[in-house]
Specification:
Length: 371
């Protein structure tokens, strides 16, 4: 008798497949607002000012520690909501009339107009895909669905055959997708190519909210969406923003380590809350676009620090595909700041990090110790 055990969401609008980072905001009283409709904030508008809400199948959190004189906190809150919703309206595969959904339905091989923002994100996705030699691939969605992950997943599906993997893989490949910025357009080389920006759009959303806040009077703040974080300045008490990295346990939550993050972006990706087991074998939701199969290495989670959350988001996904050995080698060769948590059995993990990660976190620690 076949036995299947699912972990994580298997259908509908799921929470982020990447592991969710704890925000260790020591000294900051965080207020939670699970139902956020871009309306007026109730209660005190004193600093630090914190608000949150649902977006992209997960949640966003914003903490503002310092503002320029005369800045309207309610307008900042309203503006962040509009900025994030704009990203969803353009790039979400769950929104039928988003630019990406319309492009995916089309079988035309001609250039198709999109917004400047969508063209920018697709171009960056293609750049990172080329740089990682396909470890990150914005066209991998059909393979993810084939292995019974994503919004149409269900517990009754069988494992695909090798013939099916080979067939579906022929309808993927970042080299079959083109983007240009003048005019902003996308084009397919294969009619059935589908674009999925879930591995980069959350990070882009964080960057967009960051830029809006920076341009409209926020001086020091933190923006987070489902584990992707970007900070500016420091907390209200002058300390660095402290980001807790979750230990990648399947059934419990605990803190692995804390990172001080100043004027930088961070993204974490993991596979331990979105997988299923079939006859004792674990199948990860992380699909290697290069061979069409779920990854089988022991890498449980990856954290990447970069100057933008969009890049950190995509590189974290790529590192999860490459695995501990190939990924760490790539990170060293490309000066990427990476922390890896590698399974060693019985809920124990080994940390491996790149030289760039050690340097960035060491500098943050030294800055925070200055009186």
């Amino acid at each position: 008798m076949r036995e299947t055990v699912f972990h994580g969401a298997v259908g509908g609008r799921k929470r982020s497949a990447a592991l969710i980072i704890f925000l260790v905001l020591i000294g900051v009283a965080a207020m939670a607002f699970p139902s956020f409709y871009f309306g007026m904030m109730q209660g005190s508008r004193s600093l630090p000012f914190t608000f949150s809400g649902p977006i992209m199948g997960t949640e966003f959190n914003v903490t503002i520690a310092e503002i320029e004189p005369g800045t309207d906190l309610a307008q900042l809150q309203m503006g962040v909501g509009k900025v994030l919703q704009d990203v969803v309206d353009k790039m979400s595969n769950y929104e039928r009339e988003s630019e990406i959904s319309r492009f995916n339905r089309s079988t035309s091989l001609e250039w198709q107009p999109v917004s400047e923002n969508t063209a920018l994100v697709v171009r960056e996705a293609l750049r990172i895909a080329k740089r990682t030699e396909g470890a990150f691939d914005p066209t991998v969605a059909p393979l993810v669905a084939l292995w019974n992950f994503g919004p149409e997943a269900n517990s009754q599906s069988r494992l695909p055959s090798e013939q099916e993997v080979t067939f579906v893989k022929k309808e993927t490949g970042y080299t079959n997708l083109n983007a240009r910025d003048s005019p902003p357009t996308l084009r397919k080389d294969l009619a059935n190519i589908k674009v999925d920006l879930s591995g980069i759009a959350k990070g882009y959303g964080v960057d967009q909210a960051y830029e809006f806040l920076q341009e409209n009077g926020a001086v020091s703040f933190l923006v987070e969406i489902g584990g992707e974080v970007r900070t500016k300045g420091k907390k209200a008490n002058g300390e660095s923003w402290r980001i807790g990295i979750e230990q990648p346990n399947d059934n419990a939550r605990s803190l692995q380590r804390t990172i001080m993050l100043n004027d930088a972006a961070l993204a974490t990706s993991g596979d331990y809350r979105n997988f299923y087991e079939r006859n004792g074998k674990r199948y990860s939701h992380t699909i290697d676009p290069r061979d069409g199969h779920p990854v089988e290495h022991q890498l449980a989670s990856v954290t990447v620090i970069d100057s933008t959350t969009m890049r950190a988001d995509a590189y974290a996904t790529a590192m999860m595909v490459l695995g501990p050995q190939e990924g760490l080698t790539w990170a060293e060769q490309h000066d990427l700041a990476v922390l890896m948590l590698i399974r060693e059995g019985n809920d124990s993990y080994r940390e491996e990090s790149s030289s760039a990660f050690k340097e960035k976190t060491s500098v943050s620690s030294q800055e925070d110790s200055i009186p």
